[in-house]
Amino acid sequence: MWLCNGAAVPGLGHDRNDFLSCQDAFKVISRRNFGCICISDGAGSAKYAREGAELTASAVIQLLSDHFFSIYNTSQDKIASKITGYVVGKIQNECARHGDGRTVRDYNATLLAVAVKGRKCLILHVGDGIIGCYSNNRLEILSHPWNGEFKNETVFITSKLAISTMDVVKTKVPYGNISYFMMSDGTAISFYSDEKRELISKKGLIQLCNLSRSLTQEDFQEMLRYNLFERISKNTLDDCSFCIMTK
Fold it and tell me: Which of 16, 30, 150, 168 allows an S-S link to 76, with CB 3.0 to 4.6 Å?
């Protein structure tokens, strides 16, 4: 059984009284022996950043839920092509539905996803943000952020570089207790050192992983959202999101 949870809140650069100003989106799903968490961070420069994040997260989690094994058993380069093609197709349909001249670039957004079925685990990552895990009392980064020459430069699921830069990791779920977690770049400011390319505030991350196992789903959700809004998001102008999946 996978316990999946997440939260997304606006940073100091957006209206703190309106959660709809947040351009991060998250989706989680847990059923039978399948679990999946997904975060998408809409580009601040995109006209429909929030909508792009929502579309991306919803499309990817639905695709992985419906076709996990067929995707997992495909080669890594074809996985990247299939995921990006599916998301871009959804966005193109949205543009056509409105018919007002909007383009795919108006929906630019990153992608972070972890999906598990049985003992097979698939990790997908386009752009910035962090994906990691906590297993056997050890924190580990599973996918680092992709940035260009400058810290605020990244790639989006709609970018030409999305396929070639997508981090696709196939792995096995270790035995025993494990938590997979991910965070957008706004949250990562409090938990990740770009200079050292390593996690910081490790005690806080470990505590979150342990609480995700000991608290009820409702209590953990409330605690996570409170801490993101009252503490983590006050360290950055950017929006903050965090998802966790615990066995």
Answer: 168
The whole-angstrom separation of Cα 93 and Cα 102 is 11
- Spatial CB neighbours of 34, under 8 Å, sequence gap ≥ 6: 2, 65, 68, 115, 116, 117
Q: Which residues contact 159 (CB under 8 A, 6 or more apart)?
A: 108
CA 163 → CA 13, 135, 147, 166, 172, distances in Å? 30, 29, 15, 5, 23
For residues 198-205, give the mean pLDDT.
Answer: 94
- pLDDT at res. 20: 81
Q: What percent of the chain has pLDDT over 70?
A: 97
One-letter amino acid for residue 63 of the chain: L
Write the CA distances from 45 to 25, 109, 114, 156, 161, integer angstroms: 16, 10, 26, 12, 18
pLDDT at 154: 87
Residue 151 pLDDT > 60: no
0.90 surpassed by pTM: yes
Contacts of residue 130, Cβ cutoff 8 Å, sequence gap at least 6: 112, 141, 143, 144, 145, 182, 183, 188, 191, 192, 199
Tokens of 146: 């992709």
Which H or E run includes 26? strand 24-31
Q: Spell out where 76-227 has E strands.
A: 111-117, 120-126, 130-135, 138-143, 167-172, 178-183, 192-193, 198-199
CA distances for 124 relative to 75, 184, 221, angstroms? 13, 14, 24
